[in-house]
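Quick log. Single chain, no ligands specified.
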Amino acid sequence: MQLRDTYGRRINYLRLSVTDRCDMRCSYCMPEAGVPKLSHGEVLSYEQLLQLAQAAVAAGIEKIRVTGGEPLVRKGIVPFLERVAEIPGLRQLVLTTNGQLLAGMADQLRLAGVQRLNISLDSLKPEVFARITRRGDLSRVLAGIDAAEQAGLPVKLNMVVMRGVNEDEIADFAAMTMEKERTVRFIEYMPAIQDPNWQSLVVPGAEILARLERAFDFAPVIRGELAGPAREFRIAGARGNIGVITALSGHFCQDCNRIRVTASGKVRTCLFSDTEFNLRPLLEAGDPDAIRQALQGLVAAKPERHAMDEQAADHTPFAMAQIGG
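-> predicted structure:
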């Protein structure tokens, strides 16, 4: 079975949030004071999350990314991942993490069936990293990355590029692909929380590439059918890849293949749409066919593109941890 929207896009990728809790307060993700947390009863149980994942795969989803918040802060995450990995028809199980708890969990994640990690890493300078994340410890994250690679987990490192904050580290991040088979992705700043001065932080993808071209020779690489939105390249002689994600300056909506489900069971077919559908009643009723049919209907109503550009941010502000990054 395949999921297709009215624009002919095949939707085969689910981002599934298991918690809104996080042990960081990244400046582009949420306000410094944090956000109101979901109560225990508002967060979907692991049984409900598994039921949702099973229905999604039955409907045509082939790739599930488990997100948060920070998914590794939720107790019982490893047994849950094991059960998701066993769903017949699921081709990829991946996980996004900030890496702070990763050093002690990498082997468990690989054995559970996780096939790849996306790790947020916005600076290689301890003082800048601490300022961006507000609670982060760079040494712990770097130790987590090392542990993941030693465990045999492929790693993608995500750097949100911010003007006047970390843009001077672009070449340093790209150089991290030279000796190891890792991917470094440069992400345009996105105005999720709608900081009044957000436009001043945006470094367009074209400028990121221009900076890289001054330091390296590189060529495009072919993306897989389950790939995310990055345009990927390989520096001459490198073992890994670099990528650029241009949500604002060069939106990739025409190739969008994903939907999101929050930790409370609300579906978003576009990150920057204010429209949500609550799956909780169907999950509480325990009707997998109804859940599958609801997902099919929601995909059919997926918008053609988001309404943002580099000058406007046409959506209600939100913390990324509440949606699932």
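Residues 153 and 325 are 20 Å apart (CA to CA).
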